[in-house]
Amino acid sequence: MPASTKPPKNTSGSGFDYEELVGGWYVVLMLAGSPPFGEDLGRIEQVAFQGNVDGWFLDDVVLRLRRGAAVHHVALSVKSNTQFGVQTAPNDFVKTAWEQLLGVGHSAFIEGSDFIGLVTTPLNPELREALEYVRSVSSHTPRADIPTRMQDEGFSSPLRQALYASFACPSSLAGQLAAGDGSAARLLAASQFEQFDFHREASQDETRAIDRCQELLAHGDRAQAGNLWRAILELVRKRRHVAGTLAHTEAVAQLRPLFHLREWPDHAGDWARIAHLSDVALSRIVDSVGGRVTLPPARQTAQIEAVSADHPRVSVLGSTGIGKSAATKQWALAIGTQVMWIDASDLSNHSWAAFEMALGLTYPLNELFEQVTSPGILVIDGLDRTYDVAALNNAAQLVRLAAPTDRDNGWRAVLPCLTDEWPRVSDVMDRGGTGPWQTTTLAPYEATDLQSVWQAFPQAGGFAQQRHLAPLLSNLKIVDLVVRQLVQHQQVLPRFVGESDISDWYWTQVIESLPRAIRAQFIKSVAREQAERSVARVPLSALPSALLSVTDALIAEQICESADERIWFEHDLLGDWARLRVLVEQPDEDRRTFVNSHLAV
Questions:
Q1: Lower Cβ count inside 10 Å, N or C end of the chain?
Q2: Does domain 510-599 have CATH number 1.10.10?
Q3: pTM over 0.85
Q4: Which residue from 65, 43, 540 is spatially nearest to 267, judged by alpha carbons?
């Protein structure tokens, strides 16, 4: 019968330190995503210690492995000596292994899925070769043919024959066999054997473990690799003494604050793909005036950092044009971690599966985030301008994966959002189970914030002197549009009354330039389609083909952007101005109807 359950500290014998090192090796393989017993059994997702209470009779280390949907367990007895006789397997191991295999007592073992194992110090070469041979024959030869194979002098030897025979079911357990198979092949096919030289002062296996730790580090520092190995052993020691477990996600969470770890090798390509897509999205976020003066001010990025340091989910609020996306961009890039920047329009009109497919990833996002080893930032930009149910639901699901409520994976989720739209967006996030959000509202620009702009562009300095326009100076996009137009055409700053004056001036100077009729019609068509479809990005196929000839010019002038057969305004402000223009052109009696159905996106 299997030994009765004992407190873990009582079952620790002379091999305690050796067990610790063996357990550490398997944790290293778990972090690396390296299958310990070949691809067929998959990767380690949890290492458990002293698992007798859970029904594992060989309980020093119990590995849970996964390959796809298939889960396997390998229950290992770890001994700090060779254990084997000259030609025979250790009797204690064979008896306990057969008890596990036969389900004697409270056995968790599932034959055909789980494995029994023995870890020892290195065997002599002849015995090791014989052990590998009899296990291979037992695993890959039809059971009925094995006796003949073992007696064949061309394939076997006295050592192989004796070793094979020593794995047969002990006579004391014969009554448990019923009509079952008690051959050595049955046990050998369900067994794994490993040898490590951790007991030696100059251990090659410990050097190999530190080598693997070095590969786990993002920057591959050798001294840090040794520190990582010792930190892993400390995690093992703590759990070894309390019959604990260590899952991949927990190991990463414990080590991440101390070490910059690489992602799983198989996931690295997907994270590189996400980084590329995010770089493209970030390149579209204008964070300068006139292409030369960087804004918003550093105090805004510091404000985001201060609130996000203690909260994994943050909404950056403010009025239109104040630079919410620009400030978030500068903050995210300054952090220096992985950034996943998603525009809300990329989530629109898609199921979750279609969204993942559009990203072009090999692995699903839930797997990437479950196994993520490095901290990062998720930014979903533009939720305040979408009313698409699919986009909002997809956004909530993405936040749940990146910044889960049940564990700290080192990621933060940030939503730049118009202040007036946050109640609607936050309601969707709450119903989507994303957890609580901390908000921070960006303050309007101060006069000193724009001094560098007026110094770089003296011809625009009069903008600040028109005191009645002071509220508009907090709109980074308006300042940028005015500066660009003045500089490009060497114009004198007009006297503006308010934003509508600036809008009319911009429309006349830029939109209605040659070929004015086509450009204006195209811009208004995009604005109408945005409103009617409640989307920011309009399919080119929805626009009159006769107008598409101006597309390239509008993109070159940074009025519009286009990708994936869709087009949109470089900034929401331009869409607002275009819809205002359409409104002005409506007959008086039609304006109320138009406002109700078209004005807001």
A1: N
A2: yes
A3: no
A4: 43
